[in-house]
Amino acid sequence: QSALTQPPSASGSPGQSVTISCTGTSSDIGVYNYVSWYQQHPGKAPKLMIYEVTKRPSGVPDRFSGSKSGNTASLTVSGLQAEDEADYYCNSHAGSNTWVFGGGTKLTVL
Amino acid sequence: EVQLVESGGGLVQPGGSLRLSCAVSGFTFSNYYMNWVRQAPGKGLEWVAIINQDGSETQYVDSVKGRFSVSRDNAKNSLYLQMNSLRAEDTAVYYCVRGESGAFVIWGQGTKVTVSS
After folding, report:
1. DSSP conformation letters of A57-105
2. Beta A47-50 vs A9-12: how paired, if at all?
3. In angstroms, rounded to a whole number, what is the distance separating the alpha carbons of residues A79 and A88?
4. 3-class secondary structure, A110
5. What digits encode the pLDDT tens for the residues A39-79?
6. Do A102 and B107 lie within an 8 Å CB cutoff?
7. Per the CB < 8 Å rule, is B102 touching A102?
8. CA–centroid distance for A110 within its chain
9. How many Å apart are CA B96 and CA B99, to the nearest integer?
C-alpha cells in the first residue's frame, strides 16, 4: 500500500495546457483501469474529475482529460483557467478492494 | 439532493476511542459501497476503509487494521467508523465517501479528529 508518486507542483499560464503524472506499479495502475483524479480547493472537500482512467463525470469541463500508459497515469488540463488552481490527487485500485492515493500536486495558474 | 454529513469528531487523548458517523440522504444508501478517506493537516488524501453494500465485506489500510472498524446500518442510512487505540498520526479530517465505478464519487464535508494529550 505505497502511495502513488506525483510531482509536488505544476504550473502554467492561462490558456496553456498542463499535464500531471501519477506513477504507480504493476500492482496498481499497471493492472487496473480504476484510476481516478480529484480536484481540491483550499478548505473544501475533494471533487471527482476523472474516473476509469479517461471518463469525465457530468459537469466536469472537457478541458480535463485522463490517460494511462503502463504504470503511469496522467491528467491533462487544457485551456488553463484561474479557477483550475487547486491540489490534484490521483487514485488507483491496488487489489483486494484496497485503494491508494498519490501524494498530490499543487497546480498554480501563473 | 445527495448529502453525506459526518459527525463525531473531536479531541481525544492518545490510546482513546472515537466513533464517527455519516448520515446519508438523497440516494439509495444500500446500493453503494462506502468509504472513509482521511487527510492529515497540510497533507494528502489517504484511503482508510471500505464496506460493501450489505456490510459483509470490509477492507482497511494497513496502518489502521486491528484498530479501526467500519460498519453500516442501511435501515438508518448511516455509515460508521469505530476508532480505537488512537495515535497522534490519526489526527486528520475524516471524509465519508460514496464509491461507484472504481472511484470516490460523492464526498461529505468531513469531520475533524485530533489526537493529543
Report:
1. -TTS-TTEEEEEETTEEEEEE-S--GGG-EEEEEEEE-STT-EEEB--E
2. unpaired
3. 17
4. coil
5. 999 999 999 999 999 999 999 999 999 999 999 999 999 99
6. no
7. no
8. 20
9. 10
Q: B61 — phi, psi (to 5°)?
A: -70, 145
Per-residue pLDDT averaged across B80-92, rounded? Answer: 98
How is residue A92 written as a grid cell?
A: 488507483
Do A39 and A46 touch, CB atoms closer than 8 A?
A: yes
Name chain B contacts of A60, Cβ cutoff 8 Å: none
Label each residue of chain B as H, E or C: CCEEEEECCEEECCCCCEEEEEEEECCCHHHCCEEEEEECCCCCEEEEEEECCCCCCEEECHHHCCCEEEEEECCCCEEEEEECCCCHHHCEEEEEEEEECCEEEEECCCEEEEECC
Q: Are A77 and A60 in contact (CB under 8 A)?
A: no
Cα separation, B111 vs B90, whole angstroms = 13
Give the pLDDT mean for A75-99: 97
What lies within 8 Å, CB to CB, of B72 at 6+ separation is B29, B34, B51, B55, B78, B79, B80
H or E element in which residue A40 lies = strand A35-40
Name residue, grid cell 491528467: A75
Query: Which tens digit of pLDDT belongs to each residue from B103-115?
Result: 999 999 999 999 9
Residue with cell 490527487: A89
Residue of A97, A100, A105, A106 best to disrupt the B interface, most CBs of B under 10 A: A97
Distance from CA of A109 to the nearest CA of B (A): 20
Q: How many CB pairs under 8 A join A and B?
A: 65
